[in-house]
Amino acid sequence: MKNRQVVIKKDDQNSSRNTTNSAYTVRNVRYGECQKNHAAGVGGYAVDGCREFMPTGEEGINGALTCAACGCHRNFHRREVETEVVCECSSHSSLGSS
């Protein structure tokens, strides 16, 4: 299974010229078990038991969206997002007179 990591940078608009504030939101996206209902056509409910998404190809090609274990599209797999906010606290520049 392949984990994805997305980094979003947020700049603090209220920072003064001597202070630098920045915060990053780090999101790890993981695709879990397949939730496709294979018996929907006959009015039932049955899943295939695929425990995690495994892409059939490399990132950037069509195979990256198809599961090697069950053959379903990635959208049928449960999406798990872990979000973490990382803050680089302000650094004050010292203004001294010489």
UniProtKB/TrEMBL annotation:
Pfam families cross-referenced by the UniProt entry: ZF-HD_dimer
Keywords (alphabetical) are:
Cytoplasm, Metal-binding, Zinc, Zinc-finger
Query: Matching PROSITE patterns, A to Z?
Result: ZF_HD_DIMER
Q: Which stretches does the entry tag as region Disordered?
A: 1-22
Q: Where in the cell is it found?
A: Cytoplasm
Q: Which GO terms describe its molecular function?
A: zinc ion binding
Q: Which domain of life is it from?
A: Eukaryota
Record-annotated ZF-HD dimerization-type domain positions: 31-80
GO cellular component terms given for this protein? cytoplasm
Predominantly, its location class is cytoplasm
Asked if the Swiss-Prot or TrEMBL record annotates the protein with the keyword Metal-binding, the reply is yes
What is the name listed in the Swiss-Prot or TrEMBL entry for this protein? Answer: ZF-HD dimerization-type domain-containing protein
